[in-house]
Amino acid sequence: MSLFSNLYHSDKSDKELIQQARNGNKSALSNLIQRHQPFVYNIAWKMVGDPIRAEDLAQEALLKIVVNLASFKEESSFRTWAYRIVRNHFLNDKKKAKSIFAANFEDLGNMLDATESIDLTIEEQLVKADEVREVRLQCLSGMILCLNKEQRMIYIIGEILGADHIVGSEIMEISPANYRMKLSKARKDLYNFMQNKCGLVDKSNPCRCHKKVTVALERGMVDAKNLLFNKKEYSTFKSTLEADANYLVEESELVYAELHRDTSFKTHFKKKTLIEELLEGDDWGKRLNLN
After folding, report:
1. What mean pLDDT is predicted for residues 133-157?
2. What is the Cα–Cα distance from 194 to 287, expressed in whole angstroms?
3. 158 DSSP 8-state letter
4. pTM of the full predicted structure?
5. How far apart are CA 276 and CA 26, in angstroms?
6. pLDDT digit string (tens) for 185-207?
7. 11-287 to CATH, choices 1.20.140.160, 3.40.50.720, 1.10.10.10, 3.40.50.2300
């Protein structure tokens, strides 16, 4: 089910956890953060294209949510309030997104054209299936990085996470009409590139993921022993969120959006976060302005 679907009913639980946290319940605060951490992290990952940088960015945003929790007035849903903080933090992040591809669609297209295509047999494609999928996921991630930061955020919220124009406009703090216009522009820019370059969308396009994998491995763009986007413990946006795509404006958009919704979604976080470290102290509530 979409995080922002109108059928999503966990906001009541969010409010209960917030009240409990304000009353000094450490476990409630931890549960609240754990509930939203996967989405905050995966939005960050899409924003910057780097899973390591995304960890820091997500943790910083979550910490801001916790520190400001006492100021939450319940004038909107907690999700809307919290994701406005996430939006501001991500859009104001000064570090440039690292990409092995390019910073704009023209450069990305030229790079793909210049990369030698080497055919693989069906048997070779099966043997290197994980590496081929890694190339596909990296390329899809690289495409999103060609959008400007605001477009990226709107596209992630609206197209990948499935927020409708009401929720999306509330998070972005713009009018619904302006939100729809900006989402439409982001779609158009991304889809025009895919329509003209991506063999997954149009079979007449020469670019094929399996044809690029040999060069990607030789140049170190893909490390077969450390796949960043294609680990067995990862889920996908498509499997984590609602199965249908009823938020799409046109049926023709289905292919493009489903490709991006099939990208990696990290669900498990083993590393102790800064928030968990703060909660270990006896005066955690005072430090986080909750008491």
Report:
1. 92
2. 48
3. I
4. 0.84
5. 10
6. 999 999 999 999 998 888 888 89
7. 1.20.140.160
